[in-house]
Amino acid sequence: MEDEDSNDSIQCHSWSKKEIDILLERVIENKKLLEGKHGSLVTEANKRKKWKEIVAAINACGCGRTADTCKKERCVCQKHSAPYCACLKPYI
């Protein structure tokens, strides 16, 4: 049985600048949903659906990312790009 990361798509270990830009842009656009507390609009199903959309946008660049790898990379990016996120805060 194969796990989610061992599929037929291209597996890329390092993230390109374009992938990181897409990830951060989509996470910032959807911050209320992705990081919000559960309620009528913030459900696990809605969060999973949004992560699938984010992964699809990133995978359009050619690498086979999963929701789990995107979530991990988001944490890494947010730690290292605090000034970038801070400048976008007024738009969130």
Q: Topology, pairings included?
A:
Elements (H helix, E strand, L loop, with lengths): L16 H13 L1 H5 L8 H16 L7 H14 L1 H7 L4
Organism: Dreissena polymorpha
Protein name: Myb/SANT-like DNA-binding domain-containing protein
InterPro entries: Myb_DNA-bind_5
- Count of alpha/pi helices: 5
Mean pLDDT across every amino acid position: 75
N-to-C SSE series? HHHHH
Radius of gyration: 14 Å
Distance between the termini: 41 Å
Assign the structural class, choosing from mainly alpha, mainly beta, alpha/beta, alpha+beta, or little secondary structure: mainly alpha
Strand coverage percent: under 5%
> What is the number of E strands?
0
Report the sheet with the most strands, covering strand number, pairing sense and barrel closure.
none
Q: Helix coverage percent of residues? A: 55-70%
Report what the structure shows.
The chain has helices at residues 17-29, 31-35, 44-59, 67-80, 82-88. The protein has 92 residues and is mostly helical. The protein is globular. InterPro entries: Myb_DNA-bind_5. It comes from Dreissena polymorpha (Zebra mussel). This is Myb/SANT-like DNA-binding domain-containing protein.
